[in-house]
Design a protein that fits this description.
The chain is mainly alpha-helical. Helix 2 runs parallel beside helix 4 and helix 3 packs antiparallel against helix 4.
Length: 230
């Protein structure tokens, strides 16, 4: 393995896995390094740093131990940045694995077309219908994106991201938190990251306010409900 593949292996925690799981992990690491390679985030950082961080969040903060879930987390953005990789992943990791990735990828990306009217709502509906484990991966993705948001030079992207947290992801995470201890933890961590942004004022004065100084736009709870701050 290359040094980067070893770093991916370490992020997965694969040293303690069964031999057949380790074999699959090596394949995942190779695919991740190859297919994420050459791509950067809008922050200018190598793209692979993001899925590696998502895996660490899943393992160390959300308590995920399932190797399949962690490997799916590693490749969770693969079909978004490279839809053509689906066939390769199907060949090397199996059709079921490729389908898991498709389940957590926006349809317009899978169809290799520009985002159009209705796609945002379609993605929200697709996300809301996810089973607990793939939803957990999407929430871990949101957690890392929230932590990395300050490094984005795109102020409009920051505003959209925080708005999506407020009106969709946080209500969804809150509604599903009783499903599993991992989802309950994901809600708490994501909520904390959101509140940190509110306190720091990264969103600007016209965005959602923390506390009772302004209206909280998350659906389902009144502005002063104590659940908003618990």
């Amino acid at each position: 393995m290359t040094d980067l593949e070893r770093a991916v292996w370490s992020a997965l925690g694969a040293v303690s896995w069964e031999p057949d799981q380790q074999t699959t992990a090596r394949t995942c690491a190779e695919i991740a390094v190859t297919m994420y390679g050459g791509h950067t985030r809008d922050q200018g950082t190598p793209y692979i740093e993001h899925p590696m961080a998502v895996v660490v969040i899943l393992r160390e903060e959300l308590g995920v131990v399932c190797p399949t879930a962690l490997m799916t987390g590693l490749l969770h953005d693969m079909l978004e940045i490279n839809p053509g990789a689906r066939d390769l992943i199907g060949l090397r990791l199996g059709v079921k694995f490729a389908n898991r990735l498709a389940d957590i990828t926006p349809d317009h990306r899978l169809e290799q077309r520009a985002k159009g009217p209705g796609d945002r709502q379609a993605w929200r509906e697709k996300t809301a219908a996810l089973e607990p484990v793939p939803l957990l991966i999407r929430l871990a993705d949101r957690i890392h994106n929230a932590r990395d948001l300050a490094n984005s030079p795109d102020l409009a992207r920051r505003a959209r991201f925080l708005d999506d947290l407020a009106v969709f992801y946080l209500p969804l995470a809150e509604a599903r938190r009783a499903t599993s201890p991992q989802l309950a933890m994901a809600y708490r961590v994501l909520r904390r990251e959101y509140d940190n942004h509110q306190e720091e004022g990264h969103h600007g004065a016209d965005r959602v306010l923390h506390g009772t100084d302004g209206q909280d736009r998350r659906q389902g709870l009144p502005p002063n409900d104590p659940q908003r701050h618990g």
